[in-house]
Amino acid sequence: MTKNIITCLILLINSVAFSQDTTLLKQLEDSMPQQLHQDVSAGTFKATQIINTPTVESPGKNGLQFLIMHRFGRINEGAYALWGLDNATIRFGLDYGISNRFSIGVGRSSLDKTYDGSFKWKMLQQTKGRMPLTASLYGLMTYTTLKYDDKPYLTSKHRIAYVTQLLMARKFSSRLSFQLSPSWIHFNLVPTPEDQNDLFALGIGGRMKITKRTSFNAEYNYLPTGQISSTIVHHSVSFGFDIETGGHVFQLVFTNSEGMIGPYYLAKTSGSWGDGDIFFGFNISRAFSFKKR
């Protein structure tokens, strides 16, 4: 735990000390053809995540992003657990741009020792006077590897879940962006026959730019009732404060979701803001460009 915190702090200090003139967003879009820049409304969001929810943004062709998502324990654990700082959940991810519109990603979360693979395809791009929004199709598959001594019946197929999201965003001004994210979640195995294997959720999120290098983000993911019966699931509500430091974006996070990938924050959020089940944490993203110059 301590090593994880120290590693992340070192990365943050490094990002501040060695920040470049090139912004993260510029590196993500580094390979976009020059003639498109005149018409395209670029930079709908600062990074590839609003907080937990993916944005319409993705690495450009031959661009690589390294993402660290870190959540401490619940704040209401009190002084004994240092208000959650004694505990942590972490995810590492890599996303690579195959083309300017299509990227793939892999990740690993400590929660349930989960591996994930994803793709993002930018179907539409907001342009001045022609296309009012940007739309991306996002697909994710997860595989849990946590060992259960009391569940010998679990096979590989039981450990798989899928998420598909249609990400639709509009940049209303240089400071304000919104995104709507209808989502479908499928679990190969559910706890009881009363629980549905296929779930539907609707997310909304936005970004408000405060200064040239800071912004405020928020997201809300609504899971309609009646789909899960065996446990109480709360809607995921998250807030973030972004600080851009050159090729990095550092985001301070407050959320009631411990999990940071689709099946968890959409369908397994057990925390309640009213009860103080709030997880403080951060996201750090770093972009690299392999474009030939």
Across the major sheet, the strand order is 1-2-3-4-5-6-7-8-9-10-11-12
Uncertain stretches:
9-23, 29-36
List the secondary-structure elements in sequence, H or E. Answer: HHEEEEEEEEEEEHE
Rg over CA atoms, rounded to whole Å, is 19 Å
Structural class: mainly beta
What do we call the CATH homologous superfamily?
monomeric porin ompg
Beta-strand percent range: 35-45%
Which fold does the CATH topology refer to? Porin
End-to-end Cα distance, whole Å, is 41 Å
Walk me through the structure.
- The chain has 293 residues and is mostly beta strands.
- It has one domain (2-289): monomeric porin ompg (Porin, Beta Barrel), CATH 2.40.160.40.
- It has three helices and twelve strands; from the N terminus they run ααβββββββββββαβ.
- A twelve-stranded antiparallel β-barrel has the order 1-2-3-4-5-6-7-8-9-10-11-12.
- A hairpin with a 4-residue loop joins strand 6 and strand 7 (176-187).
- The longest helix has 16 residues, at 2-17.
- The radius of gyration is 19 Å and the shape is globular.
- Mean pLDDT is 87; it is low at 9-23 and 29-36.
